[in-house]
Amino acid sequence: MITARQSRAARALLGWTQQELADKALVSLTALKRLESEKDLRVYETTEDQVRRVFEDAGIGRKWSKSCSALIRKLNPSAVGASMIVTLPERAG
């Protein structure tokens, strides 16, 4: 599962608009906006999977711990250790 915050952060790392991501993931813009909504709107599991796959194909990986999640982007797929890490602390409340 990919969260709204993770999707927005990954998209920002890649410099993509919502429309660009929707086009690449072959999902509607409306579905992507629902996925990225702060209101926890439900989307089809296939929508989440398609968005996740597009991020993975673009070099975005995810790691989780109990207190936060991190998005990792390989800056150069052929270089060892060339990564950018963005940590997303869990929201209180």
Overall morphology: globular
Low-confidence stretches: none
Number of domains: 1
According to CATH, what is the topology?
434 Repressor (Amino-terminal Domain)
**Discrete helix count:** 4
CATH class: Mainly Alpha
Largest sheet: 3 strands, antiparallel
In CATH, the architecture is: Orthogonal Bundle
Structural class: alpha+beta
The ordered string of helix (H) and strand (E) elements is HHHHEEE
Task: Supply the CATH superfamily name.
Answer: lambda repressor-like DNA-binding domains
Percent helix range: 40-55%
Please give the radius of gyration in angstroms: 13 Å
What average pLDDT do the residues reach? Answer: 79
Task: Tell me the span between the first and last alpha carbons.
Answer: 20 Å
Which strand-content bin applies to the residues?
Answer: 15-25%
Side-by-side strand order of the widest sheet: 1-2-3
User: What is the β-strand count?
Assistant: 3
Task: Kindly list the characteristics that best describe this protein.
single chain; 93 residues; alpha+beta; 434 Repressor (Amino-terminal Domain); 3-stranded antiparallel sheet
Give a structural overview:
- The chain is an alpha+beta fold.
- The protein has a single domain (4-89), classed as lambda repressor-like DNA-binding domains (434 Repressor (Amino-terminal Domain)), CATH 1.10.260.
- 42% of the residues lie in helices and 20% in strands.
- It contains 4 helices and 3 strands.
- It has a 3-stranded antiparallel sheet.
- Strand 2 (68-74) and strand 3 (83-89) form a beta hairpin.
- Helix 2 packs across helix 4 (45-57).
- The longest helix has 13 residues, at 45-57.
- The radius of gyration is 13 Å and the shape is globular.
- The two termini are 20 Å apart.
- 20% of the residues are buried.
- The mean pLDDT is 79.
